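Appendix B. One record, verbatim.
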Amino acid sequence: MSPPGAHEAIRRMEAETALSRDTLVKLTDEMTALKSAVTDRAVAHTGSIAPSEQARLAETIDRLKATIQDPDKKLTAIEERLTRMEGQIMAGLNNLAAPKAAATASATEQESAPAAKAVKAEPVDGWVLREVYNGSALVESRNRGLYEVMPGNMIPGVGRVEAIERRGARWVVVTDKGFIGAYR
């Protein structure tokens, strides 16, 4: 379960992102047209452009550059907010899943041990184990998001954490889709 309003907030951010991308495309097209017009005018005049005309064109180009940079900053801020929200949602889900996982862990391990070992033999692409401590692990996602997990927790895109175990000299986090090791 996700916290109330999380889906709506994500939908709003996706809408803002789409609007910002559309604005960026329009501004890029306008800037391309303006560059083309300036080039055409310079070729047509082959002489010199009046200083007032040069100043006006330079000012217009500077305004367009500043306007194009704003959507990039907004997109970055939206991505950061989405990452934070995803972390909060996953923390809430992990807190809800922890009591259930503790109660069913031993039964699930006994039932699924042979089948699970075959699936868990492959590393999960793009994820890396950063630290293991006190029965918990710190894993890093493809986009540099950090997640503190325990057996029974859910990891976005990877599934449920089955175990945190030592394999030889290395620690691994065993999940539904494979294992997360110390190297990518």
